[in-house]
Amino acid sequence: MAAAIEAYLEKHGVNEMVQKALNAVVKQRAANPAAALAAEFTKMAKAAKQEEGASGDTSGDTSGDKPADKPADKPADKPADKPADKPADKPADKPADKPADKPAADAPVVFFVLGGPGAGKGTQCKKIVEEFGYSHLSAGDLLRAEREAGTDQGSMIEEYIKSGKIVPVEVTIKLLLSAIEKDGGKRFLIDGFPRNTNNMSGWQLTVGTKLALAGVLCYEVSEDELEARLLKRGETSGRADDNIETIKKRFNTFKMETLPVVEYYAHQGLCTKIDGSKSVDEVWAATKDFIDSKEAELKQK
C-alpha cells in the first residue's frame, strides 16, 4: 500500500509541489504559514486547471461537458427562485409593520425638557403645569426619591449622582414609566431626560408607541451663569450635587453626552431652543408660545 501511495505521489509530482509551496512560504516569512501554504496550493491548482483546459480543447469530450453543464444549471435555478420569492415576502411584511411606528391617537403625549444643570427647567415646568395642567416628572427627582428610600438600587443611584455620572437607562426609564402609569394623565413634561444617546435609544426601544413625543424644549445658559445659580442654590438646597466639584463634572457630562441628543432632536425638527439666561418672565413667555403652538398642532391631528 505504501509503495502504491509513493508511486502515485511521484507520478503526479505531489512531493515536488509541496516542496515548492513550502519554499515560497518560507521566503515570504508569512505570519500565518497555514494560510500562506493554502494560498500557494490554490495558485498551483488554478495553473494546473488552466493547462488542462488548454490541452483539453482538442482532445476528447470530457472537458467540454462540464463547462456546458454549469452555466445551464445555475442560471436556470437561482434567477427563477429568488425573484419569485422576494417580491412576495418583503412587500407583504413592511406595510404590516409601519402602522405600529405611530402611537395611537389617544396615547399620552410627552415633552422632553433639557438644559444644563441650573438652567431653570424645574421653574418653567412648574409654570406649564399651572397654566396648561400638564403632569411634571423630573428624572432627577425620581432618582433622588429612590436614592433616599434606602434600597440597594437607591445606593447604586447615590454613587452615580455623587460622581456626576448618568444613571443606567434601564433604571431611569423604569421609574418614569411607573410614574406615568400611576398618574394616568394625557400630557407629561419629562424634565432632565434623555441625558445621553443611550437614554434616547433605550426610551425608543422600551416605550415604542405607548407614548407620543410631541417636542423637546432646551434652555440654553452659559456655564458661568449656571455655576453662579447652582452655588447660590446649594446654600439652601442641601443637595449633595450642588458643590463646585460635582457641578464641574455635571457641566462636562452635559456637554459630552446631552448636547448630542439636543442636536439630534433639532435635526429632526423636534427641538426648540430658548435663551434661559433671560428673566424668568421672559423665558416663560417663550415657553408658553412653544406649548401653545404644540397644542394647536396636536388638536389638528
UniProtKB/TrEMBL annotation:
Reactions mediated catalytically: CMP + ATP = CDP + ADP; dCMP + ATP = dCDP + ADP; UMP + ATP = UDP + ADP
Keyword presence, Cytoplasm: yes
Principal subcellular localisation of the protein: cytoplasm
GO CC, any one term: cytoplasm
GO molecular function: ATP binding; nucleobase-containing compound kinase activity; phosphotransferase activity, phosphate group as acceptor
InterPro entries named in the record: Adenylat/UMP-CMP_kin (IPR000850), Adenylat_kinase_CS (IPR033690), P-loop_NTPase (IPR027417), UMP_CMP_kinase (IPR006266)
Compartments (UniProt record): Cytoplasm; Nucleus
Keywords: ATP-binding, Cytoplasm, Kinase, Nucleotide-binding, Nucleus, Pyrimidine biosynthesis, Transferase
Gene Ontology annotations of biological process type: 'de novo' pyrimidine nucleobase biosynthetic process; nucleoside monophosphate metabolic process; pyrimidine nucleotide biosynthetic process
Chain residues that bind ATP: G118, A119, G120, K121, G122, T123, R233, K278
Comp. bias intervals (Basic and acidic residues): 63-102
Enzyme class: transferase
UniProt KW Kinase keyword: yes
Record region (LID): 232-242
Cofactor dependency: Mg(2+)
EC number(s) stated in the UniProt entry for this protein: 2.7.4.14
Pfam family, one: ADK
Residue numbers binding CMP: N199
Cofactor notes: Binds 1 Mg(2+) ion per monomer.
Role played: Catalyzes the phosphorylation of pyrimidine nucleoside monophosphates at the expense of ATP. Plays an important role in de novo pyrimidine nucleotide biosynthesis. Has preference for UMP and CMP as phosphate acceptors.
Similarity section: Belongs to the adenylate kinase family. UMP-CMP kinase subfamily.
NCBIfam families from the UniProt entry: UMP_CMP_kin_fam (TIGR01359)
Swiss-Prot/TrEMBL domain comment: Consists of three domains, a large central CORE domain and two small peripheral domains, NMPbind and LID, which undergo movements during catalysis. The LID domain closes over the site of phosphoryl transfer upon ATP binding. Assembling and dissambling the active center during each catalytic cycle provides an effective means to prevent ATP hydrolysis.
Subunit text: Monomer.
Protein's name in the database: UMP-CMP kinase
